[in-house]
């Protein structure tokens, strides 16, 4: 049900019915005759498509996006979601899927205790069958106690949202040029040491609890990054 509502909201945005701000959750509940939880799940889908931004205490605003493009990485989405046209198709090939203990490099960004258990997912992602990126992602088993292979091959964030009611409430991103290590370059068919765009991202849910950290190495040509900021009131 919430997927259908999400698609209807997306269609309304594209058709210019929502140009600035979404109606309130209560108004959407009345429009679609569903529960608040269903509306929140639908909004989360739209948010992860990169079409909305959250402003605490004010609601959801429609992003004033550049022309739709498969080469735009939307940092506002909070989950590193790319802005793909409906004609584009993103697929995955899993390289590594296992459980590990958090090492010091993961303890810090995720604010974990040493040796905390994590799911590790390394996968190649393809856009219309062309290599898009290499994603190295880690998920806390405290927030995600079980992650099936089916989810790893599809949308992990959709699975987490649907099964554990974990939604991204904030994220931290760091963009850099990073040289590919030998094993990364080999699996991507690139030259070791080649510098590519890299996005480090930590995602939080609830009251600022980190549940996911990832580094994504992009090799798709012509990529750009989109973000949004608003003035902070100084009183």
Automatic annotation (TrEMBL):
Domain HTH gntR-type: 1-65
Residues spanning the signal sequence: none
GO biological process, one term: negative regulation of DNA-templated transcription
GO MF annotation list: DNA binding; DNA-binding transcription factor activity
PROSITE patterns cross-referenced by the UniProt entry: HTH_GNTR
Coiled-coil blocks: none
Keywords from the named record: DNA-binding, Transcription, Transcription regulation
Classification via Pfam families: GntR, UTRA
Protein name: Transcription regulator
Organism, scientific name: Lacticaseibacillus pantheris DSM 15945 = JCM 12539 = NBRC 106106
